[in-house]
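Methods — Computational structure assignment.
A single polypeptide chain was analysed. Its primary sequence is given first, followed by the predicted tertiary structure written as structure tokens.
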Amino acid sequence: MWVIKFHGETMYVDHVEADMPWSTKETPNNPSTKGSIKFKEVLLQIDEDNCARLSKLTVIDRIRLRNQKRGITRIMFGWGGNMHKALAANEFRHSTFKNVEGACGSSYVVCDLLKKEEATFAALKYSFRILQPNETYYQLYDSKAKWIDEIDEDDQE
């Protein structure tokens, strides 16, 4: 088991992978450890196997993490549904809509709810899905395109 300290939080993981430069910090007077490895400008991701992956922090990662701290929630919902109508009527503060065309003529919309309190209230009132940062649609929203092309499952294999 490995101990990772990241922004004041301590995490215990089974494995650590990193492909970036690092430096050491010696702590000879510490009874439990004699040193540590330090990384700068790093993105920490822990997978379902409890493996920590350290990678270079990109500009898009910085924006995403800042947005998460601010309570911005990225969502996906049906085109023309109640949530879409509520946002179109500015019931909640939101970012630009990006459209996703699904299978069999279905279509969805992806956007960010800009206030955490409003996201909580909207979740009680309307039906939508909160996207997670590791999902393709979440990541594709940050592209400059107005439309998000659906990823065909056969293309991913």
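Note: The helical segments are 59-69, 82-88, 116-125, 136-141, 153-156.
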